[in-house]
Design brief:
The protein is of the alpha/beta class and about 250 residues long. Helix 1 packs across helix 7.
Length: about 250
């Protein structure tokens, strides 16, 4: 079971171990957790069918080739919602009121394949006629907290953070936001996608899907940050992240 996400490797593995144990019991097979060290590393592993099932970020899933051999089978609900936002944050003393003010500024970004830390703010800036390295400077960082720290320490002027992670970060570091302001949000982003290897035996695929959707043990889901339960999801929900929406080809 491959996990792509923004948390630390050890912490993410700890969170998903109860789910792996539950699946091991449900499937009568040993299910292990492997946390992808980066978004790109995860996509490389998908190409060689390393995982029977995998959790992918929205953009990573949306850009998965149609012939990848993996099929979408589940989405996630977080605090009762099937979606989240990328929250655009700026330093209060930067005179930045909206993204169009980013010209000449330092923009903190996460992994290039992260929907909330890079993809959507890049698109927003591009739609405003602003280009990275030309109109603004990119400060590349590892995760959501690193982006907030860079803003708070005046190493960046603007940065995007997932609405799913922002409350926890601020709860742990209440003063972190004292010099920062929210200047906007992205459109709604569907939560992470779960895919399954299409080459698995049909009965095993059915058992995996049944195990996910019949999971009602809160001791399993409460360990996973930002996941309440697994839900049915449509591929079309991720279409807006594609250059050419698959729905347009139907």
């Amino acid at each position: 079971m491959g996990i792509q996400g923004a948390g630390g490797l050890t912490e993410t593995e700890r969170q998903f171990k109860p789910l792996a144990d539950y699946l091991s019991q449900s499937l009568s097979r040993n299910v292990k957790v492997e946390v992808m060290p980066s978004y790109q590393a995860g996509m490389n592993s998908i190409k060689i069918h390393k995982y029977a099932m995998a959790k992918l970020g929205p953009y990573a899933y949306a850009t998965l080739p149609v012939n990848s051999g993996y099929k979408l089978f589940a989405g996630e609900s977080s605090k009762g919602l099937p979606y989240y936002y990328s929250v655009f944050i700026a330093r209060a003393d930067s005179n930045i009121k909206e993204l169009s003010d980013a010209r000449g500024k330092r923009v903190a970004l996460g992994d290039p394949l992260s929907t909330s830390q890079s993809v959507l703010i890049n698109r927003e800036l591009a739609s405003l006629g602003l280009s990275a390295g030309v109109d603004y400077t990119v400060v590349r960082l590892d995760n959501h907290k690193a982006i907030l720290n860079a803003l708070a320490s005046n190493k960046a002027d603007i940065g995007p953070v997932s609405s799913r992670f922002l409350p926890k970060i601020l709860a742990a570091s209440p003063t972190l936001f004292s010099d920062l302001v929210v200047i906007g949000n992205s459109r709604r982003i569907p939560n992470d996608a779960w895919v399954i290897d299409s080459t698995l035996p049909s009965d095993l695929k059915s058992k995996i899907e049944d195990a996910f959707f019949s999971l009602d043990d809160t001791k399993v889901t409460e360990e996973i940050e930002n996941v309440d339960l697994f839900r049915n999801v449509s591929d079309d929900e991720y279409d807006f992240l594609r250059t050419t929406p698959r729905s347009a080809k139907k």
